[in-house]
TrEMBL record, chain A:
This is Sugar transport system permease. The lineage of its organism: Bacteria, Bacillati, Bacillota, Bacilli, Bacillales. The keyword Kinase does not apply. It comes from Geobacillus thermodenitrificans (strain NG80-2). The keyword Cytoplasm does not apply. Gene3D superfamilies: MetI-like.
C-alpha cells in the first residue's frame, strides 16, 4: 500500500517536472540565443550554451535602433499613467455603486455589466475615428484616456466594497468626515489588497497591449515596446540574435515585478475569475 | 425632517455622480458612443480621404459578407482554432491544477514557473516561437532527433495555424490553471476522505469528485476561452507580418477586420459590419456553451 502511494507521487513529480521543462525551454532558448554570435545562429546548433559567449547583441540593438530607449520610456509612461488612473477611477465608481443611494444606480450598474460583453473589435473602428477627430492619434492621451477605466475592475471593486465593513465608515462619519474624506482617507487605504491585484493586471494589460498602439500610433517615436519590437523584427528578420536580445530586454521588467508581487497575481486571478 | 432628508439625498446623489464622473465620461465617449457609431458605420460606406464622408448603403455591407471568400476563410480558420484550442487549454489547465494541488513539495516553485508565459507579452512570445519554428530551428531539430517528421512551420499553409495553436495552448493554459487552483482549495477534504474509505483510487477521485465539483469553474473557463480565442489577432498579425499568410492560412476574423478597416480604402463600413457579425458569433457560442453546461449539470 505504501509503495503504491510512492509510485503515484513519483508519477506526479514526473508530470510536474516535464511541464516545467516545456514551459522553460522557449525562455531559455531565447536567452541563450541572445548571447550567441550571428554565425552560430545561422549554423543552427542545438546547444543551450553559446560556443562563443557575447554581449554584443545587447550593445548592438541600441546602436542599430536608437529608438529603443524611447520605446521603453513610452511604454513606462503609458502603463504607469493608465494604472494609476484605473486604480483611482475604478475604485471611485465601484464605491459609488456599492455604497451610495442615488437615482440611476441600477441602470448604470446594468450598463457596466453589459459593456463587459461587447468585444473590443466593435468599438475599435469608431474609437479610431473619434480619436482622429480629437486629434489624439499619435499621442499619449489617445493611448491613456480611452483605457483609464475598466468595466471588469469597476465590477470587482463594487463587489469588494459591498463586503467591506460598514462600521468603519459610520464611525468616521460620526467623527465629522464627509463622503469624500471617508472614501479617500478610510476606505481607499484599506482596499490595498484589491488595489494591488488590480494594479498588476492593468499594468500588464497596458504594457503588453499590441492592437491599440498598432491602430493609434504610426509615428515610430511614439511606439510602445511590443510595437517597436514588431517593427524591429521587420527590419532585421534573419538577425535572430538581435531579436532575441531585444525580446529579453522587454521581458525583464515584467519578470522583476512578478518576482516581487507574485502572490498578488494569484489573488487577483481568483478575484476576477471567482465570481 | 422631510426637508433634511431630501437635502441629504441630493448631497448623496451629487457625490455619487462626482465619483462616477470619470467612468461615465470614458463610458460615453469611448464605449457607448462608439457602439452607436459602429451601428451607423455598418450601414454606410466610409471614405477617409481628406475629410471623412459617409454614404448610406443599407444592408450592403452585411450582404457582402456572404460573397466574400476571404471572410469565409477567416471564419473557417477562426472556428478551427477555437474548436481545438479551447478544449485543449481547458483540459491542460485542469490537469496541471489537479497535479499541483496534490500536496507535493515544491508546489510554489512549479506554480511560479508555469505562470511565466502568462506574464510575457504576446509580441515577445510570438517572436520566440517564430525563432523556434524556424526551418533550421529548435523544434525541427528536436523532432528530427526523436525520429518524427519536420515541418516548414511558418511557410507551409497546412501547418502555420497549427503552429499558432500550439503556442497559444502553451501560453494560455497556465492562466486558467490558476483559476482552477483557487477553486480546488474550496473542495472539502471530507469528500476525498469518504471516497478513500469506499476504496476509490486517485483517478476515480479525480473523475468523480474533482471534475464534477469544478463544473461551474469549467463553465467560466470555457466561456473566457471562447471569448479570447475568437479574438485571436496579435499572434496571427506578427506571424504573418499582417497579411494572414501563407496563403490566408493564419487569417483570422479580427485580422480581416483590421485589414478592411485600416489597410484598404473605403472598406471601413464593411469592417464594422464584420465586427458586428463576430460579436454575434461570440454571443451565440457563449449561449450554446451555457445551455450545454446547464443540461450537463442535470445528470
Amino acid at each position: 500500500m505504501k509503495r503504491k502511494i510512492g509510485i503515484g507521487k513519483a508519477l506526479l513529480y514526473v508530470v510536474l517536472v516535464m511541464y516545467a521543462i516545456i514551459t522553460l525551454i522557449p525562455f531559455l532558448w531565447a536567452l541563450s540565443s541572445s548571447f550567441k554570435t550571428l554565425e552560430e545562429i545561422v549554423s543552427g546548433t542545438m546547444s543551450f550554451v553559446p560556443k562563443q559567449f557575447t554581449l554584443d547583441n545587447y550593445k548592438q540593438i541600441f546602436v542599430e535602433q536608437d529608438l529603443f530607449p524611447r520605446w521603453l520610456l513610452n511604454s513606462v509612461i503609458i502603463a504607469v499613467a493608465v494604472t494609476i488612473l484605473n486604480l483611482l477611477f475604478n475604485s471611485m465608481a465601484g464605491y459609488a455603486l456599492a455604497r451610495l443611494q442615488f437615482p440611476g444606480r441600477k441602470p448604470l450598474f446594468l450598463i457596466i455589466l453589459a459593456v463587459l460583453m461587447i468585444p473590443a473589435q466593435v468599438t475599435m473602428i469608431p474609437n479610431y475615428l473619434i480619436l482622429k477627430q480629437l486629434g489624439w492619434l499619435n499621442s499619449y492621451q489617445g493611448m491613456i484616456v480611452p483605457t483609464m477605466i475598466n468595466a471588469t475592475f469597476i465590477f470587482m471593486m463594487r463587489q469588494f466594497f459591498i463586503n467591506f465593513p460598514k462600521e468603519l465608515e459610520e464611525a468616521a462619519e460620526l467623527d465629522g468626515l464627509g463622503r469624500f474624506g471617508i472614501f479617500f482617507r478610510i476606505v481607499l487605504p484599506l482596499a490595498r489588497p484589491a488595489l494591488a491585484a488590480q494594479a498588476i493586471f492593468v499594468f500588464m494589460g497596458s504594457w503588453n497591449d499590441f492592437m491599440r498602439p498598432l491602430i493609434i500610433l504610426s509615428d515610430p517615436q511614439l511606439f510602445t515596446l511590443p510595437l517597436g519590437l514588431n517593427s524591429f523584427k521587420g527590419q532585421y528578420i534573419s538577425y535572430w540574435n538581435y531579436i532575441m536580445a531585444a525580446s529579453m530586454v522587454f521581458t525583464l521588467p515584467v519578470l522583476v515585478i512578478y518576482a516581487f508581487f507574485n502572490r498578488y497575481f494569484i489573488k487577483g486571478i481568483s478575484f476576477t475569475g471567482g465570481k | 425632517m422631510k426637508q433634511t432628508f431630501t437635502k441629504k439625498m441630493w448631497r448623496e446623489t451629487g457625490s455619487a455622480y462626482f465619483l462616477l464622473s470619470p467612468a461615465l465620461f470614458v463610458l460615453l465617449l469611448f464605449i457607448i458612443g462608439p457602439i452607436v457609431f459602429a451601428v451607423f458605420l455598418a450601414f454606410h460606406k466610409v471614405q477617409l480621404l481628406g475629410t471623412t464622408s459617409f454614404e448610406f448603403v443599407g444592408l450592403d455591407n452585411f450582404a457582402r459578407i456572404a460573397n466574400d471568400t476571404r471572410a469565409k476563410i477567416a471564419l473557417w480558420n477562426t472556428l478551427k482554432y477555437v474548436a481545438i484550442v479551447v478544449p485543449c487549454q481547458t483540459i491542460l489547465a485542469l490537469v496541471l491544477a489537479a497535479t499541483l494541488n496534490a500536496g507535493l513539495k515544491g508546489q510554489k516553485f512549479f506554480r511560479i514557473v508555469y505562470f511565466l508565459p502568462t506574464l510575457t507579452s504576446s509580441a515577445v512570445l510570438t517572436l520566440i516561437f517564430m525563432w523556434m519554428y524556424n526551418q533550421n530551428g529548435f523544434i525541427n531539430h528536436v523532432l528530427e532527433a526523436v525520429g518524427l517528421p519536420t515541418y516548414n512551420w511558418l511557410g507551409d499553409p497546412d501547418v502555420a495555424l497549427n503552429a499558432i495553436m500550439i503556442m497559444n495552448i502553451w501560453s494560455t493554459a497556465p492562466y486558467f490553471m490558476v483559476i482552477y487552483l483557487a477553486a480546488l482549495q474550496d473542495i472539502p477534504d471530507s469528500l476525498y476522505e469518504a471516497a478513500e474509505l469506499d476504496g476509490a483510487n486517485a483517478w476515480q477521485k479525480f473523475w468523480h469528485i474533482t471534475v464534477p465539483y469544478l463544473r461551474p469553474v469549467t463553465s467560466f473557463v470555457v466561456v473566457m476561452g471562447l471569448i479570447g480565442t475568437f479574438q485571436l489577432f496579435d499572434q496571427s498579425y506578427i506571424f504573418s507580418a499582417g497579411s494572414g499568410g501563407p496563403n490566408n492560412s493564419t487569417l483570422t476574423v479580427v485580422l480581416l477586420i483590421y485589414q478592411y478597416a485600416f489597410k484598404t480604402l473605403g472598406t471601413m463600413g464593411y469592417a464594422a459590419a464584420l465586427a458586428f457579425a463576430l460579436a454575434i458569433i461570440i454571443l451565440i457560442a457563449t449561449l450554446i456553451q451555457r445551455k450545454l453546461s446547464k443540461e450537463e449539470s442535470l445528470y
